[in-house]
Each structure stands twice: as C-alpha cells, then as structure tokens.
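Continuing from the previous page of notes. For each protein in this section, the sequence appears first, followed by its structure tokens. Read the first protein now.
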Amino acid sequence: MSLCINPSCADPQSSDDHLFCASCGSELLLEGRYRVLSLRGQGGFGKTYEVSDLDSSPKILKILTDNYPKHVELFQREANLLSQLSHPGIPKVEPNAYFTFYPRNWKEPLHCLVMEKIVGLDLQDYLRQRGHPIDEKLAVQWLKQVLKILQVVHTQQVLHRDIKPSNIMLKANGNICLVDFGTARSVTNVTNNQQGGTRVVSSFYTPREQIHGQAVPQSDFFALGRTFVHLVTGKELSQFYDGSTDNFEWRSTAINISPRFANLLDWLMSPIASQRPANAEVVLQQLIELESSGQFIPTSALNQALALESTQAVNLPSSNSNSNAFHPGSTSGPVSTGSQPLPSPSTSPPSPPTSPPSPHTGTGVPSSPIGPPSTAPESATTPILPNRESSIRPEFSQKCQNTLAEFIGPISTIVYQRTVTQHPDVTEQELVKLLSQHIPIPEQSTEFCQRLRS
C-alpha cells in the first residue's frame, strides 16, 4: 500500500500501482520518485514517513504540516545544514532532497525533506530496553564516535544545540549517528541573533548560556556530558539536582565508571563555557590516554553491583518522556579557541581527567563529601504555589510561572520559588516587578509585566 500525504485526505491508503490518490486525487509519486510507505511518527508541527526511492532503497521523509514562517525557516535550515555535512554518523541528504508539494485542494504547500534512513534505536530507547546502565568501556566507545561527529559539525561552524540520548542513534553494527538537526544553527547566526533567535531548551541538557541565546560549541559539550551521565547511571538527571544549592551530584551513583572518566564528564559539564574543552580533539586525546591506561571498571564489577541492587529497578524514563526539570549550567563567558589546559584540581570547576579527585566530588562546585544519594528534588516544572500566609493568589502564581517560562525557559520555576522565599510578604504587583528583573532582554521584560497586568 502507498500513503497519500494530503492532510485533508479522508482515506490516504492507495494501491501501489496508482499514481493518484483514489480518495482526494493528490499525487502519490512525489517528485516523480518517492512513494510513501508508512507513517513513522508525528508531533509538534511535522510528520515523518518512510518512503522508497527509485531504486527501492528506504528513506525518511520529513514533512512540515504548517507554514508558520519561523517553522519554515527552521525546516529549511535543517535541509541546508545537512546538505553541507558529510559524515557516516550524520543522516545523508542528497541534492534536491528538499522540495515543496501541493496536495489537491490544499491551500498551502507542504515542505518536504528526504534523508537517509538510520536503522537502529536511539540511546534513550536502547537504555530502556537494556534495563541497566552502560559500562565505562562502552561509554568511551560511544563518546569517541559522537566527538568525531561533532568535529565535523563544529568545523563547519554549526552548533547542534539539542544533544541528548533521544537524538543519538545506535545502529545494529554498533556505529553511532547524531540526528535531529532541526534546531541546529551556524555560529554566525547564533551570535548575530542573540536578541531574537530561536531558543532551544532540553531539561537538564541545556547550559545557561544557551538559554540566554548565546550558544557556543562548548554548549554542545555540556549537553554531551549530561547525556553520558544519564547513560552510565541509568537514572533521570532530575535525581541529581538540588534546587536549594544549585548543585548537580551524580558521581556516587555511577558505580560502573572510574574516577578519571567521571572527571572527564565533569569537565564537559563545567558551569562556565570557557572552562569546558576548547574543541572535540582535546577530549578525544584524553579518551585515548584513558584507553591506553587500561583503567576501565570491568563489567564483572558492574554485574556485582547490580546484583546488590537486584531488588531496586533502574529508574529509566519511557522513550517518549522528557526530563521534568531544567538545570542551568552556566552564564556565558569568553570561549578559548586554542589548545586549552585542563582545569586545576584546586579550583571550583571540575578536576582534570588526568588528576582525579575523590570520587565523591560534584559538578561545578567545590569538592565536598557526599553521603547516600539524596532524595530526588521536586520537578522544576511542577508549579510552586504560595504558602497559606502569602497574599499571592494560587491562580496568579501559576500564571506568573507559565508566562515567565516563555521568556527564560523551565528555570522559571526555580526563579519563582527563590523570589517568593526571599520576599514572603511581596504583593502581586511587586512580585511581577521582581520576576521581570530575571529576563535579560528589556523588551521582553516589559512585555512580561504588561501581560501579568492584564
């Protein structure tokens, strides 16, 4: 069977030997070569299909289902960037793979992009099906592959901006692919559009400089570090974040990695962009030295640890879930471009991979002992309502948090909670003014105040 992609088609299924849909009359052979076989997914403002080409090879067709200018811009940008990037770990886009299609009796064109089909599982699904965390040897193997992909991406002056387990695919042959370049931007576009560019936020994976529209290559490294923390612990990142101290404590949970590899992940997740690796090459060099040192935690040790925890299920999110909170990594800082020495173990940033501190050191804070893993903090996206004595109405509290999130992202709830804690007797009008001070762009701060007064 072939599928018609006309959004208004009442019966999209047609016979393979038809060229036009029997229901709506739209063409079934797109661009004279692509026949739609099945729907793979949908959400947001797009759909994804599997299609066959002239040579019957399977490919993926992405379709934009609306014509909102910003959505069209993002879609066309992805097509343009993918056409410039050439690496086995990046979905291949052939020339003329982007086109528009006009269904019968549909007023607007459908924007279409055909790309290579990556057969495998994303790492979120892989970890869920595996049932327990990956060990250090596998983590190093995957991390090296992703870094080599980022070498190509960053060399082309492109930032991915949304690295997370669900955007990394594992093929059946063990090769890794980085997917979903729909939010990627060139470095030039990011720096020239800080006031109005598209903000990309994935809870706990996005550093603070990116939420403020100042993404740099090191922003991808932060997200990569957080991704591998999830993979080697098998737990939601929200469990490691303490909102009262702004601290991210994960190492005591990573039972299957060495302190040296943990240090390297902490380096990637340094709170300030300039304290992270200068480029992918310096991280790859550290991984090569780690491999040559033979300091991996053996899988047998992991199995013993898992046996001790046999009564506890590994806490993994479902394949369709998103982390339910956001931890800001840092404010923007100057980013070095040359070779970069690793941070000193005596400073507050994470210690260098070559000089491991105590395995109980946290990320981005002075070293301190850690006891048993603390109870997971309340979700940063859970509304924080005022206490009984507060003059703030619950419905106004909710409106404040929702509106503030539109300007600064999920960190808004943390900002709100701290504000009402520091000012328990604040009025609603005063609260709006205090919250507006956390919006860095003056025009947006003014708009926030206006919307809360209406």
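Done with the first. The second protein uses the same format. Note its length before scrolling.
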Amino acid sequence: MRLILLIIAALLPLPQSTLAREITDTLGRKVEIPDTVERVICSGSGCLRLLTYLQAQDMAVAVDDIEGRRRQFDARPYAMANPRFKTLPVFGEFRGKDNPELIMTLDPAPQVILKLVGTGKGTVGPDPAALQEKTGIPVVALKYGNLGKMKEDLYNSLRIMAEVVGREQRADAVLTFFDEQITDLKKRTADIPEEQRPSVYLGGVAYAGPHGFQSTEPTYPPFHFVNARNLADNANPKAGEITSTDIAKEKIVEWNPDYLFLDLSTLQLGDAAGGLFELKTDPAYRTLNAVKTGKVYGVLPYNWYNQNFESIFSDAYFIGKLLYPERFSDIDPAAKADEIYTFMVGKPVFAEMNALFGNLAFRDVPLN
C-alpha cells in the first residue's frame, strides 16, 4: 500500500508554489514565471544590454534583428563583447517590433520575455499583455530609464530583471558601481566656482539618425557629472527638460566656447557632410577660438540603440581629465574606459570601438 501511495504522489502535480513564482513588473502587472529561469529573450532598445550588465547574456536564446546587422559604425559595447549575438535566431525587428509567430517557433523556447516599454522613440510593437496572450509565454515589462530624472526606472528595472534571471547580487554590484562613478566624478570638481569652469559645447549629437554640428544635448550627462559649463544647457531655462536640440550656428559663434566636443556619431554622414566636415570647411566655425587653437575633441557616442551607460562614464572621465587635469591626475581615460567596459559588459572594447570611429575618440580632432 505504501508503495502505491508513493507512486500516486509522484504522479500528482507539484504544488503551484514550487512550480512558479510571481513577479511584479514596472507596469504593476503580476506575472507568473518559472521558479528557475534559464532561457529568455529581450525585446526593445537596450534590453539585451541590461541583461549583459547582469552577466546573464548567455540566457538569451534569440535576438532582434539589429544584432545581425553589419555596419561600418557601431557604438554598442555589449554587442562587441558578445559576438555570439550575431549568430542567434531572430524573433522580430528592432525597437520591440516582436513577431509572435517567430517567438513561438524558437527551439529552445524562452521561458520569459523581457520587454521594454514606455521608452518613447525607442520601443514599439505589441504591448506586454497582448504579446503574452499570443505566445503563451510570460512577459515582464521594464522601463529603460536613465542616469538623470528617470534613474529610479533604470534601477528598478535592473532589480526586476535580476529577480527574474537570478542575478540579484550582480544587480546590487552594478547599481553600486553606477553610484560610485557618479559620486567620484562629481566630487572631483564640486568645489570649483562657476566662473572658473570652462565653457563647453558638444556638437554632432545623433537622434533618430546622425546630424551635423548644430545638433547638441543640453542634458549631456558627462558635462553634468564633471560640472562643466554646458552653454546649451545654460541658454534656456527649460533646457534641462530637452534631451536633444539644434542650436543656431550664429549662437555657437556668439558663445565662442572654450572647448568644443564632437560626438563621433556624426561621422556616419560621410567625409563630405556632418559635424567634422563642417568644422573643417564652414567659415563661421573657423572663427571660433577653440577651432583656431585646436581645442576640439572627439567623444564616443553613447546614445546608440538607447543609452550605453558605460560610455557615458567613459566620456565623462575623459572630459574631466581634459578640463581639470589636476583633479583627474590619476586617470588615463582609455584605461579607465576599458576598466568600465570590462566591469559592465565583460571585455575591454575601447580600442575596437575607437577604431570604428577613425581613432578620434579621447583626443584632439585634426581640422586641417
């Protein structure tokens, strides 16, 4: 009799609590997922980057189509550190345009779909509930956030993703790392009076594609972190609410910034267009003191398939070293970048990425 009971017990389904657990995602949805998750897919601009930060990238069983594209320029350290992504099956188009039919044919199948929502221009496609209904796979919604006003969205999403994939300790380490970099950058220059801070301008910022030198970012985080005097930010009381904008050429000339920085994403426009071409050929820009004295410097793009936070910190340390060399005397910008990249994505990729942008990052840009 005891043997029969044991056999019956073995055939009965296990209590639901041992088979599944409940996650609350960033939309407040209660999503039931397996106790142990080993296979996922990441939907939306930058979702796979966050998974890589958590050192769980090997759990991805498929990718969106941006990972397989071959391009002359690329500023995604997470992808450079993981060439395996190029060989994985595709489950949909980039920016969250998921294909439920493709997802359902994946073998092995994902146990959970991690999907970014609410990222404005970044993510579209089916909403989490609809995607879950169509595929029968749990969908956990996340918000990408940033290191500014939406910092809590970023931190919360990393914690939720870590809870899904079992990387809670790594998430704590990543968030601590973020806070330590921000604190270190700010404290090095916090006591410098406003009037002693150099004036700066960043041109060539990409948004929805590459742009020329008038394109800038009033809220450019590296300037903020090192307390540089970003003229585009100070020019408008509402500038802190604007992530990208165009500044009139006449205004840039009027400002005549102490230092000019070139977002190297502008190189995508080719040799006969873009910010670098304009600085070399436009008579108005040639009148700028920074152009005359060679104080024009290249920085790595960070807004490439959403924000690459590791590149934000890398650019900030370079800019800090340039503007306040005595405050950053212990920093070698390229070495610091690789230290950051190694911690965040697992490999030192500065040289590889810099090579894609003509080796113009973290140096003065030749204009003759």
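What the second structure shows: Confidence is low (pLDDT under 50) at residues 1-18. The longest strand covers residues 20-24. We return to this in next week's lecture.
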